[in-house]
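Hi U.,

Before I forget, here's the chain from the pilot set. I'm dumping it here mostly so it's searchable later in email.
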Amino acid sequence: MQEYDLVIIGGGPAGLAAAEAAKKSGACSLVILERDRELGGILNQCIHNGFGLHSFGEELTGPEYAKRYIDRIRDLKIEYMLATMVMDLSEDRVVTAMNSENGVFSIRAKAVILAMGCRERPRGALNIPGYRPAGIYSAGTAQRLVNIEGLMPGREVVILGSGDIGLIMARRMTLEGAKVKVVAELMPYSGGLKRNIVQCLDDFGIPLLLSHTVVDIHGKNRVEGVTLAAVDEKGKPIPGTEEFYSCDTLLLSVGLIPENELSREAGIALSAVTGGPLVNESLETSVPGIFACGNVLHVHDLVDFVSEEAATAGKNAAAFIAEETLRSAGEQGPVIPLLAEGGVRYTVPSCIHLLRMPEELKVRFRVGAVYKNAYINVFAGKERVIRRKKMVMAPGEMEEITLKKEWLSEKTDTITVTIEEEEI
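Structure:
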């Protein structure tokens, strides 16, 4: 049994930023366990720019952004293991992993940070009728094939789902010579950033069909085409609106799922909305000493926010290690739940230990619909402490507010985040 102060599961942007912050905050022995052949995670296949504006004040590609953090990890001499699969995480923070060099091994940690990221929702979750021909890919798989393996998935493409990966791949496939016929989106709004709709679709003349979905996939050996249909407000296809599009490739960009199989094994409470762990103001899960950050916690729109959140988790994990003997339930003070209401789908964190709360705390959330000229309201108990107008809010973009400790007291029973639509 090996022993470390801190084990970080995942060597993507969240794991790298968490490791750097933890080391600088005093964690003596720590190790990153990464299942891929190199550090950097999904950033290695994201060769487009747009990363780093918040973290570095300049536009970087994904690999450039990752390299800056990898260089910091190496400068700090932080240990990491590549091609290492974590198979089990126990409630008492014992990590079981395996690789070709060490076989199966276990590590007992004083603290653990979950930074496993997320995976794409597959075709099997969509209930689309048709055979199982070649030519159906998730957008992320297609991105890896094109940008890392140097392979083209196809030449005539239809994309289902307007998440950011799907939008970016519409542009990427076009630049590589493919014809992207259409991007179809089930919802009446896009799930991606507005800038990606403009830069990846509008600039290349690629149509976006909202409130549409694939109702049939044609072809047995290889995709020969798909049938799209409009859907009603319940998401059900409307008879008579079917339209056939010939294509040899269908890319799916239909949502991301946080990788939380290990979290379940450790008995960590998960959010029914995000699929990620429920965390407090320290990004600590329901199991003491296990922290979560990045897309394993909730899906982010910008990697800069992943790094910022992960650095907070790293600092708090180092503080947990240093103060473990002092952290008893009686010393935590009142626990205040954060309630997401009136158009707010969830909040991170979902609760706050008042005595451990910093003077200012960022709370991030997503809305469940498109709002224009609406207000973000935050109530501490019955007292409104924030009322901020936003011109536009959409599910594809994360929102944030800053809570101040001075607004709360031991008598504060709840904190409520809600959306108020402007009366016309």
